């Protein structure tokens, strides 16, 4: 007896079978690639951290990370400590770079949860760096990055990235012409934390004034710039109580 391939029962059974087959295949692929995905995330995070503190292969105007085959060695060389901060207390943790900022922010909505803040201490050319991871919201999706500070809490370098900002506009937060402006910027006014704002109509387009707490915003990317400014202020502020103890 021939099958009635036009019946509703056949359609439902066929669709169910395809869902099960495709689901099984996807689960298998995901499981088989799990270790590779985790390794790629480690490499990317370590490249970004190193980039912020000036360990990169940059050429004029370009963004070039430490090569993948060298990043583990360079990370071990330049990052002397990984800390997890809670308030003004810190404990060493060599897996601090694996802390998921998004999950920590969600967990911190519970007032009884003590949020874990990863901090990376680096040494380059006999200068100590404190590298802070930051995460926020741009125009369309998440934005994130790393900010490297010196002992005086002056920015020595940054790296920013995004999930889906507008090409040629908000996506330019990861371009050299924008990120390089942050180098030398102050975030403290005496003992008061101010942060750095991507300011539209900034009266310092060449970014010569490093104590005005501003960098020139990206034209046409107001919402992305506002999100980045809010991200820097919100996330760096959480580290200030601990960083102040290092200056005492």
Question: Can you give a write-up of this model?
Answer:
The protein has 248 residues and is an alpha+beta fold. It has one domain (42-246). The protein has 5 helices and 10 strands, in the order H-H-E-E-H-E-E-E-E-H-E-E-E-E-H. A 6-stranded antiparallel beta sheet has the order 2-1-3-4-5-6, sandwiched between helices. Helix 1 (8-52) crosses helix 2 (71-78). The N and C termini lie far apart (88 Å).
Q: How is this fold's topology laid out?
A:
Layout: H1 8-52, H2 71-78, E1 79-86, E2 89-92, H3 101-107, E3 117-124, E4 127-137, E5 142-149, E6 155-162, H4 176-179, E7 188-189, E8 192-193, E9 197-199, E10 214-216, H5 222-246
Parallel strand pairs: 9-10
Antiparallel strand pairs: 1-2, 1-3, 3-4, 4-5, 5-6, 7-8
Helix pairs in contact: 1-2
Quick synopsis:
The protein is α+β, with helices and mostly antiparallel strands. Helices cover 36% and strands 23% of the residues.
């Amino acid at each position: 007896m021939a099958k009635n391939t036009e019946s509703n029962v056949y359609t439902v059974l066929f669709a169910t079978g395809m869902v099960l087959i495709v689901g099984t295949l996807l689960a298998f692929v995901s499981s088989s690639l799990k270790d590779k995905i985790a390794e790629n995330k480690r490499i990317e995070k370590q490249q970004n951290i190193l980039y912020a503190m000036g360990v990169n292969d940059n050429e004029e105007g370009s963004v070039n990370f430490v090569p993948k085959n060298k990043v583990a060695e360079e990370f071990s060389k330049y990052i002397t400590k990984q800390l997890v901060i809670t308030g003004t207390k810190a404990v060493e943790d060599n897996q601090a770079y694996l802390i998921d900022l998004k999950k920590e922010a969600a967990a911190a909505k519970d007032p009884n949860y003590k949020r874990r803040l990863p901090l990376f201490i680096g040494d380059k050319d006999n200068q100590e760096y404190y590298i802070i991871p930051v995460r926020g919201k741009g125009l369309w999706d998440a934005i994130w990055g790393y900010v490297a500070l010196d002992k005086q809490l002056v920015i020595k370098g940054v790296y920013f990235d995004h999930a889906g900002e507008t090409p040629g506009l908000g996506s330019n937060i990861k371009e050299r012409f924008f990120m390089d402006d942050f180098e030398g910027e102050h975030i403290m006014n005496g003992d008061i934390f101010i942060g750095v704002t991507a300011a539209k109509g900034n009266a310092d387009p060449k970014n010569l004034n490093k104590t005005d707490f501003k960098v020139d915003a990206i034209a046409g990317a107001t919402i992305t710039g506002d999100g980045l400014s809010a991200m820097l202020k919100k996330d760096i502020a959480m580290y200030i109580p601990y960083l102040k103890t290092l200056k005492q």
